[in-house]
Amino acid sequence: MTKADSPPLAPSDKQPPHVKIPEPPAKKVGWAIVGLGQLAIEEVLPAFGQCDLAKLVALVSGHPEKAKKVAAVYGVDPKQIYDYSSYDTIAENPAVDVIYIILPNSMHAEYTLRGLKAGKHILCEKPMATSVAECEQMIAAAKTARRQLMIAYRLRYEPFNVEAIKRCREGQLGKLKTMRATNGQNTQAPNIRLSQTLGGGPLQDVGIYCLNAFRYLTGEEPIEVSATAHQPKDDPRFREVPETVAFALKFPSGTIAQGDCSFGTSEARRYDVHGTHGSLHLDSAFAYLGQRLILRDSKMASELNLSPVNHFAAEMDHFSECVLSGKESRTPGAEGLADLRVITAIQEAIRTGRTVALNT
Ligand code: NAD
Predict the structure, then answer these.
(1) 89: Cβ–Cβ under 8 A, 6 or more apart, which residues?
(2) Residue 54: CB within 6 Å of ligand 1?
């Protein structure tokens, strides 16, 4: 065969036939970020680069110089920067579909209500608010505005926790008898987490992950709560909020769950679930990455190999899909309200030293 009748081996305009040129998605949902603090700057803004359906279009911040710098880095038009007084005029901005509230906890309710009034869908950071009444008001406002309200429980969108939920709920461990969860860190001042006025405290900030996990692993609402807390007098960090909170929840099926959270320990974020036939352990359960899921039965232990994802990109894409399709998110306002009910009961148990019954 001569060179002339044989096909070229590597023509410059060809690539392997299995390589598909990606199609741009039909529509990306436009997002505005409210509050440019640690979470927004270190996790959420970079995660847009991994989203398929969410794009960053606007910023809301009380610090114009910071907002301008961030806008330049992420290609946001400077005209799309708002401050807290011009926030309501976001109603006139058709490029913004979703507002993501990443402010101190005490500001979640106000900025959610204003965002809904502006006709936007809301993703609100955890804890949803500082009281059950605020949560109820936010849910009612979303209904009136006919807009979606999702709470940013990122672990419901990452594969390790999702797998743990599946195994617990499908009975693979048998009947669930006991659970334990720890979420602790050593929080230094200044920090919004140490301010009661801003809705801080270890229970609201990190303990919420333990109690949310107990609820999502069992699929039940607790009926009984007992708790204790320690607020050291000799550490000025804990002038307003406790250092450590420990609590126990009893669920209708009889599962007993024990959680503890602290702002005074080295980082520890994990849970264990024990059933009649087996148990599971999730290491780094509440961290941004590094989850390790170990399953045990009477004979052996094995580690499950799952591909990790960026939690923030996964939750933002999920909500974008909900906004595009009109389907409700996996973690709507009702989830945040359910957690606030338990937090309120834990606080009552600490205050009274008594077991508190919860109506389901
Ligand atoms: P942060 O203190 O770093 O940021 C708070 C932002 O709010 C700052 O930009 C600050 O300027 C602004 N702000 C506006 N008014 C303020 C006021 N009166 N006082 C103080 N700050 C004010 O906090 P963060 O760590 O980014 O946390 C913000 C929210 O995100 C909290 O609700 C927290 O619970 C939540 N969060 C969630 C996760 C998660 O994994 N889902 C992780 C961290 C924080």
Answers:
(1) 82
(2) no
- The one catalytic residue in 120, 126, 153, 157 is 126
**Pocket flag, ligand 1, residue 152 (CB < 6 Å):** yes
Cβ(128)–Cβ(61) below 8 Å: no
Cα-based torsion angle of the residue sequence 347, 350, 355, 356 in order, rounded to the nearest 10 degrees? -20
Tokens of 227: 């708790």
Taking only the tens place, the pLDDT of each residue in 115-133 is 999 999 999 999 999 999 9
Pocket flag, ligand 1, residue 161 (CB < 6 Å): no
Q: Hey, which of 192, 204, 312 would you mutate to test ligand 1's pocket, going by the most ligand atoms within 8 Å of its Cβ?
A: 192
Residue 268: count other Cβ atoms within 10 Å of its Cβ. Answer: 16
Give the closest residue (by CA) to ligand 1 atom 8. Answer: 37
- CATH architecture of the domain covering 29-154: 3-Layer(aba) Sandwich (3.40)
Q: Where in the chain is the domain with CATH 3.40.50.720?
A: 29-154
244-250 and 224-230 beta bridge pairing = antiparallel
pLDDT at residue 360 tops 80: no
Question: Which class for 169: exposed (0-12), middle (13-18), buried (19 or more C-beta within 10 A)?
Answer: middle
**CATH class, 159-305+332-357 region:** alpha beta
Nearest atom in ligand 1 to 106's CA: 32
* Residue 231 CB coordination number (10 Å): 15
Distance (Å, rounded) from C-alpha 196 to C-alpha 202?
A: 11
What is the tens place of the pLDDT at every residue in 236-246? 999 999 999 99
- Span 297-309, pLDDT tens digits: 989 999 999 999 9
